[in-house]
């Protein structure tokens, strides 16, 4: 068959790549809409409303759900974040140290506390520490225990984030600082670490969101009525009222904080990508 004959042959009909993508996207939309309709038709909205949306019960939660439960949750989160950030910075610098034992200790800490569930850390702080050191009181009471437990967990993740941020700073920055007469320690504190934090600010903010949710584990430390956070407060009222509306309200309070924080993280990530471009 000559080239001319080949050109005269009718081309095989079929979908183009763009048409295939459009067809696949259309099928996905159809499946999604069908699933939503099936859920809307099959759900018993009356029972759901009676169990999760009793306005009279929800009104009883205010203002305590904000002035006490949400406030305690925010305080627990911020205190754990501060402890985790400070400890994470130390561990990150140990990981980058030229001293072998420092690197080994930091590596062991990170592997242990990243591998253990946060629940076990809370139980250890609340039960094992008082048994091991009778009469020892952690400064700050429940707030101090939560800050320590959350901080120990967060530090393992923050340390790796901080280490990656420091290593992402161009080596020429340290060399330039040294040429200006800065000592290695001063150059690290004044030049490298500030630049690293600009890089790692989005993942650190994301870690704050995770800590906000992990603060619900405070119930394993044994808290008073005034020290309850959102989850504990919602569960207690749900048991008292035999209704799940308090749990839904507590969940909405979590979203009141996590959704704006998530938006901030996305904005910072977008700005970071624009700066790279």
UniProtKB/TrEMBL annotation:
The cross-references to InterPro entries, in alphabetical order and at most eight, read: AA_ABC_transptr_permease_3TM, ArtM/GltK/GlnP/TcyL/YhdX-like, MetI-like, MetI-like_sf
Ranges annotated as spanning the membrane: 27-46, 74-96, 108-132, 138-159, 180-201, 247-265
Q: Where in the cell is it found?
A: Cell membrane
* Source organism superkingdom: Bacteria
Domain ABC transmembrane type-1, first and last residues per copy: 70-265
Topological type in the membrane:
Multi-pass membrane protein
Q: Does the keyword Nucleus apply?
A: no
> Which keywords describe this protein according to UniProt?
Amino-acid transport, Cell membrane, Membrane, Transmembrane, Transmembrane helix, Transport
UniProt similarity note? Belongs to the binding-protein-dependent transport system permease family. HisMQ subfamily.
What protein name does the entry list? Answer: Amino acid ABC transporter permease
**Protein's organism:** Streptomyces cylindrosporus
């Amino acid at each position: 068959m000559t080239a001319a004959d080949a050109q005269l042959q009718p081309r095989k009909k079929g979908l183009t790549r763009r048409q295939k993508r459009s067809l696949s996207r259309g099928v996905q939309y159809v499946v999604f809409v069908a699933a939503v309709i099936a859920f809307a038709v099959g759900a018993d909205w009356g029972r759901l409303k009676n169990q999760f949306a009793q306005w009279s019960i929800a009104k009883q939660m205010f203002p305590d759900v904000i002035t006490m439960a949400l406030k305690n949750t925010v305080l627990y989160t911020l205190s754990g974040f501060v402890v985790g950030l400070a400890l994470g910075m130390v561990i990150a610098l140990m990981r980058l140290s030229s001293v072998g034992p420092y690197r080994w200790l930091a590596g062991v800490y990170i592997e242990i506390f990243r591998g253990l569930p946060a629940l076990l850390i809370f139980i250890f702080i609340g039960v094992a520490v008082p048994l091991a050191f009778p009469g020892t009181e952690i400064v700050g009471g429940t707030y101090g225990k939560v800050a320590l437990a959350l901080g120990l967990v967060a530090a393992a993740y923050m340390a790796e984030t901080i280490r990656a941020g420091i290593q992402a700073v161009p080596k020429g920055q340290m060399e330039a600082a040294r040429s200006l007469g800065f000592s290695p320690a001063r150059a690290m504190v004044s030049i490298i670490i500030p630049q690293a934090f600009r890089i790692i600010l989005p993942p650190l903010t994301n870690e704050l969101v995770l800590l906000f949710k992990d603060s619900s584990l405070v119930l394993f430390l044994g808290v008073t009525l005034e020290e309850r956070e959102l989850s504990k407060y919602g569960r207690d009222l749900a048991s008292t009222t035999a209704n799940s509306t308090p749990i839904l309200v507590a969940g909405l309070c979590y979203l009141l904080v996590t959704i704006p924080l998530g938006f901030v993280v996305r904005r910072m990530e977008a700005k970071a990508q624009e700066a790279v471009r």
